[in-house]
Amino acid sequence: MKQEIHYCTASDGVRLAYSIVGAGTPIVRTPHWFAHLEHDLTSSAMRHMLLTLIKKHSLLRFDPRGIGLSQRDITELSFDRWVSDLETVIDDAGLDKVILFGLSQGASQAITYAHRHPGRVSHLIIVGGYARGVLHRDNLEEQRESLALSRALVRGGWGSSEESYRQFFTSQFIPDGTPEQHHSLNEMARVAATPEMAEKYLTETADINVTDLLPKVKTPTLILHGRGDRRVPFCLGQEIAANIPGAKFVPLETNNHVLMADEPATRTMFDSIADFLGEKRFRGPLPGAATISQRLEQRAKAIEQNWVIKILIILAAIAGLVIAIIQVWKLLNGD
User: How far apart are CA 126 and CA 237, in angstroms?
Assistant: First the structure.
C-alpha cells in the first residue's frame, strides 16, 4: 500500500502530518497516541484494519501533535487542541462530509466533532472507546495509583530497546496477540512518541470527560466494544451507547482492545460496520487475515508441537518408571 504524506498547520503553528489512501466515501480515523503513519502500514497489529477500511472507502489518518510524523517539539497539549487539530486536518483535506471512526482515545474526539459539526458527519463509529478518562471513573484512588505506575514505566524506559516497559501497555491492548503482534505494537509505541510525550498523553487522556455531550449527538452512531477489553472496560462502551440517542451497540467476543486480523470478533466488527453503513458484507477472508492454507499450516505446526510435548512427557514418565523399578530391584536384592 502506497501513500502520500501531506502537511498542514494548526492554528497555533504546529505542523500536522496526514495521508489519504483508498477511494470512495471518506472515513476519518481520529488519532490516538499509539500511531505512526508509516509504521501503521507494516504493523501486523494494525495493517489489517487499514486494508479492510480502504476496500470500499478512502481513509484519512493523521498523526496527532507530538506523535509520529507530526511536529514533535510542541508546547501545548490538550483535549481542545486535539479536536481543533481534527477540524484543521479535515478542512485541509477538503472533505465536506465524512464517516468518523473513533478508536480508543479517538472516540472522545469523534464524539466532540460530531456534536460541533453535525452536518459534516454522516455516521459515527466507535470501537473500544470511552467518554471518561481514568480520573473521572469509579475507584478514583485506585485509578490514580494505576496512572502513576503507568507514568513511571514510561519515564523508566519507553524509548529504550528493552520492550518490557512497553509490553505492560501492549499486554493490555492485545492480550491474545501473537509474539509477532506484541513486538510490532511495542515497536510502534517506541517510534510513535518520546517518553516525555507519551507521559504527557497519559496525563491528558486521563482527564478526558465528554459525557455531557453524549445526549446531544444527533449523528447515527455505532458502538463496538470487546467484552473482555483489558484496556477500556466494557461498561464504558455501554455508557456511550446508552447516552447517545438511537445508538446501536454491538458487543465483541474478544479480550483485545485492538482487534487482530484472524479473530472472529474482527469479522463481527466489519460485518456490523457494513450493515450500519448500508453496504455489502465482505466475502472470503478479510485483508490481512491468514489464508486457508496458512491456517492449516499453523494448525499443523501447533499439533506437531503438541505431540512433541506429549512424547517428551511420556518418555520422561517411562524413564522415571524405569529408574523406580531399578531402585526397587536393588533394595530387594540387597544392593
Answer: 9
User: pLDDT by residue (tens digit) across 29-84?
Assistant: 999 888 899 998 988 888 999 999 999 999 999 999 999 999 999 989 999 999 99
Cell of 74: 510542541
CB 28 within 8 A of CB 18: no
Q: What phi-psi label fits residue 288: left (phi over 0), alpha (psi between -120 and 50 degrees) or beta?
A: left
At position 287, the amino acid (one-letter code) is P
What is the Cα–Cα distance from 72 to 69, expressed in whole angstroms? Answer: 8
Instruction: Find where cell 470511552 sits.
Output: 130
pTM (2 d.p.): 0.85
What burial letters (b/e) apply to 223-251, b meaning 16+ CB within 10 Å? Answer: bbbbeebebbbeebbebbbebbeebebbb
Residue holding cell 481542545?
80
Residue pointed to by grid coordinates 497555533:
12
Q: Count of alpha carbons within 13 Å of 160, Cβ hemisphere only? A: 11
Q: Domain 5-135+208-277 falls in which CATH fold?
A: Rossmann fold (3.40.50)
Q: Any bridge partners for residue 21, and if so which?
A: 59
CB of 191 closer than 8 Å to CB of 37: no
Contacts (Cβ under 8 Å, ≥6 apart) of 173: 34, 185, 230, 231, 256, 257, 258
For the residues of 187-203, what is the DSSP string, one character each? HHHHHH--HHHHHHHHH
Q: Which of 88, 131, 123 is nearest to 106 (CA)?
A: 131
